[in-house]
Design a protein that fits this description.
Blueprint lengths: L8 H16 L2 H6 L6 H14 L1 H13 L4 H13 L5 H10 L3 H13 L6 H7 L5 H14 L2 H12 L3 H13 L6 H6 L7 H11 L5 H7 L5 H22 L14 H11 L5 H14 L5 H6 L5 H13 L1 H14 L2 H7 L10 H6 L6 H14 L5 H6 L6 H14 L2 H12 L3 H14 L5 H8 L4 H12 L4 H10 L5 H11 L6 H10 L5 H13 L6 H6 L6 H14 L1 H11 L5 H14 L5 H8 L4 H11 L4 H11 L5 H12 L4 H8 L8 H8 L6 H10 L5 H12 L2 H10 L5 H14 L2 H13 L3 H11 L2
Helix pairs in contact: 1-3, 3-5, 4-5, 5-7, 6-7, 7-9, 8-9, 9-10, 9-11, 10-11, 11-13, 13-15, 14-15, 15-16, 15-17, 15-45, 16-17, 17-19, 23-25, 25-27, 26-27, 27-29, 28-29, 29-31, 30-31, 31-33, 32-33, 33-35, 35-36, 35-37, 36-37, 37-39, 38-39, 39-40, 39-41, 40-41, 40-42, 41-43, 42-44, 43-45, ...
Length: about 775
């Protein structure tokens, strides 16, 4: 058993003793150690007692019944019974029936609830009305944990009892079931002053869009606290519904019937005194309602904490067509933080160009850079002269943003100004202008590039070489070949790198093969890259010699080049370095072998997948992903069980984008893994060839726990074939599959889906399916 890194030597010693007691099956001695002062040691004891199974059940129950003087021991005994490898449910039920001690009852109820003991439901239901409030609360929570049709009925009954000490805790538990049937009883409590806040929160937890109209009605009431809670609930419904079934307007569309002006006034008033989370939710709801009069208040919130400010900006974006005058005024008057949020909102408005250009003079370089980006997105070339003026900005971010914006705008004026700026002036401006000319590849720039190639400024030479490579001109090619023999190391490097972007002609290949033996490592590096890019197979032998180059970057470049050139000689050379003692070289070779995809490489790659180094395993997994379906999926299946998080994530990503049914089956097999579950569902929702068919097959034999997860993956796709699959699944024989499909069909909102739900509400043989359909339809 592994000890924590933060435990003392004494704790490690006691933990080792626990391991020995486990081997000896010494239950009494282990029970005595439930009072150990260290939770690390107690956790080891709990694990040991749970693994011992049946022999430990009676002693642990005896602790709950008779040894109630130590809270730590009681908590540990409960944990051991919950995790027990045995089946202690019947014994716990007997304890519950026999004991009159409220504490014993609460502990027994907690064990039954956490073990999801369905057979205890009737007894727990009766205890929800126990005279002891603690026992009743424990029973309510246990019923919610167990779930199922019976639990919904019991919780609804408790909520409708209006007995405060029973109804109040049941409200929260009922909401967390996320069952469509909870909307009606919880909505009925929104008019009850004692229960309204808790009921609104619970409706948020339930994440049912059908609750939106009832919650929306609260937005017009003169109660700021209730308005804040309601906004949070609406935001939670939107987020959870989106998480399960993909993006939709399930909440915003249902807010259409609310009185926009009244609700907006209430929401704005509720901002006073709201905490950060509430302000964020209030902004989001204001954006969904879309009342233009709320923009002024939202603009003020651009100075709030980041989450609320971001939500305010998104809300403004939702109603920006009506709010543009206010936004422009705010842009002129605002400080840095506001301007950073406002500028992206104006990226589609040509009428905003003049005001955005004012921000080019802002003292803050981040504002100047953002203004450049915004002007580039607006697409009005009237900004070109002002943008050229910023190519010499003292802040590199601003100069780069200005150049990017100019590239987005283009045009005759851009060509003229770039040619002019490239000839004279500040070297920084000249370099930026040359990059712009290289980006567009205008023939008119040839003379400028040739002149710059002869400049003493080596950075200008670098840009000029890249620009000449973009021109289809014999003079440009000749100049680069000549420059690749210059005394200057930097000039040779730039020219060789540029030659890799030119035409595959004998003169270029000959010069690059000569550069493989250049005295400078970076020239050799770029020569490898250039020859592989030109796919010069005759260069494989001289490139292979560089696998022993003293410079690491050259060895890596040689590996990458051989992978591109392929061929038996290249593959053999790669196999040799794939067993290198240099981890970087080995990983580069493994990755290259994945690109080659030769079956002769599989033993090496499989061996690397078992490496003790996580980075090597990650690279091997990426390489194996390039092979056929069976090999790739088998590797990813192992990868999802890897100890390293990055390897597990890479395996899931691999399978998410892998077509074919085998990849889907591998992902479905991990749906029960709580640590991977959310990411697996997200991966399954990736609409790739064979995914829907494989999910349909899995759904037909899914367990009650798996069915909602598979349905969520299909619903998130938002593809016609996935929608059709859900509609067809709704006529399957399995009731639990139909139950899982009900909320997904409601979320899809198609006419066919509604007809199926309406029919099932009347005719389905399963009572729970009928009730669920009625609930999502609002009947």
């Amino acid at each position: 058993m592994k000890a924590s890194l933060n435990v003392s030597d004494a704790e490690r010693a006691r933990t080792a003793e626990v391991d020995g007691l486990l081997r000896d099956r010494a239950v009494p001695a282990l029970v005595e150690r439930l009072t150990d002062p260290s939770w690390t040691v107690r956790r080891a004891v709990v694990s040991a007692l749970a693994r011992l199974g049946e022999p430990a059940v009676a002693p642990l129950i005896d602790v709950l019944r008779n040894l109630r003087d130590d809270e730590a021991r009681l908590a540990a005994a409960v944990e051991a019974l919950v995790a027990s490898y045995a089946k202690p449910d019947d014994a716990i039920l007997e304890l519950l029936e026999a004991s009159t001690h409220p504490g014993v009852k609460c502990d027994a109820i907690q064990v039954l609830g956490r073990r999801q003991c369905i057979s205890a439901m009737a007894r727990l239901g009766s205890l929800m009305q126990d005279g002891n409030d603690n026992v009743a609360l424990a029973a309510i929570e246990a019923v919610g944990r167990i779930g199922g049709d019976a639990s919904i009925e019991l919780l609804i009954t408790a909520v409708q009892s209006k007995s405060f000490f029973r109804a109040f805790p049941a409200i929260d538990v009922l909401g967390r079931t996320a069952d469509p049937r909870v909307v009606t009883p919880l909505s009925a409590l929104l008019d009850e002053p004692h229960y309204a806040l808790e009921a609104a929160r619970a409706l948020g937890h339930a994440a049912q869009p059908k609750a939106v109209p009832a919650l929306a009605a609260l937005l017009t009431r003169p109660n700021d606290a209730l308005t804040r809670v309601t906004a949070v609930a609406l935001a939670e419904i939107h987020d959870r519904h989106t998480e399960r079934y993909g993006p939709s307007s399930a909440v915003s569309s249902r807010l259409a019937k609310v009185s926009e002006s009244t609700a907006s006034r209430r929401l704005i008033r509720a901002l006073v005194g709201a905490d950060a989370g509430e302000r964020t939710a209030l902004c989001r709801v204001l954006g969904w309602i879309g009342e233009p009069d709320s923009v002024e208040a939202l603009v003020e919130l651009l100075d709030a904490e980041p989450a609320a400010a971001h939500a305010a900006a998104l809300a403004i974006a939702n109603i920006v067509s009506d709010a543009e005058p206010l936004l422009l005024a705010a842009l002129r008057q605002s400080r840095t933080e506001r301007r950073l949020l406002l500028l992206p909102l104006l990226s589609r408005s040509r009428s905003a160009v003049a005001d955005v250009m004012v921000c080019l003079d802002d003292a803050d370089p981040s504002i100047r850079a953002m203004a450049c980006d915004t002007l580039g997105k607006i697409g009005d070339d009237v900004a070109v002269p002002r943008l050229f003026a910023l190519l010499g900005d003292t802040d590199a971010r601003v100069a780069q943003s200005a150049a990017s914006a100019i590239q987005s705008l283009g045009g005759v004026e851009t060509e003229r100004r770039a040619l002019e700026a490239a000839r004279t002036g500040d070297p920084r401006v000249r370099r930026s202008a040359l990059r712009i000319l290289a980006y567009f590849g205008w023939p008119s720039s040839l003379e400028v590039f040739l002149a710059a190639l002869d400049e003493p400024d080596e950075r200008l030479q670098d840009v000029a070489a890249a620009g000449l490579a973009a021109l289809d001109d014999e003079r440009a090619l000749g100049a680069l070949i000549a420059a690749s023999s210059r005394p200057s190391t930097r000039a040779r490097s730039a020219a060789v790198r540029a030659l890799g972007q030119t035409r595959n002609v004998p003169a270029v290949r000959e010069r690059l093969r000569t550069a493989l033996s250049d005295p400078d490592a970076w020239v050799r590096y770029y020569a490898c890259q250039a020859l592989s890019r030109l796919h010069d197979e005759t260069a494989a032998e001289p490139i292979a010699k560089l696998l022993a180059d003293p410079a690491g970057q050259v060895r890596v470049a040689a590996i990458e080049a051989l992978a591109r050139l392929e061929g038996s000689d290249a593959i053999g050379a790669l196999h040799a370095v794939a067993e290198s003692h240099d981890p970087d070289i080995r990983r580069a070779a493994l990755l290259a072998l994945g690109g080659v995809k030769s079956s002769s490489s599989l033993p090496l790659l499989r061996s690397a997948l078992a490496s003790t180094d996580p980075a090597t395993r990650l690279v091997a997994l990426s390489a194996l992903a390039e092979f056929d379906e069976h090999e790739a999926v088998a590797s990813a299946r192992d990868g999802m069980k890897d100890q390293d998080e990055s390897v597990r994530s890479a395996a899931i990503t691999l399978l998410a984008g892998r077509p074919g049914k085998e990849a889907t089956r591998a992902l479905v097999a991990e749906l029960g893994n709580a640590s991977l579950q959310d990411r697996v569902i997200q991966a399954l929702a990736h609409p790739i060839e064979g995914r829907v068919d494989a999910l349909v097959v899995a759904l037909r034999c899914a367990s009650p726990e798996e069915a909602p997860r598979l349905v969520s993956a299909l619903a998130r796709m938002r593809r016609p074939e996935a929608t059709a699959a859900l509609e067809e699944a709704f006529i399957e024989d399995s009731p639990h599959v139909r139950r899982a499909v009900v909320p997904a069909l409601a979320a899809l909102g198609t006419a066919t889906a509604r007809r199926r739900l309406e029919r099932a509400a009347r005719e389905d043989v399963d009572v729970e399916v009928r009730e669920l359909c009625a609930a999502v339809l609002g009947n």
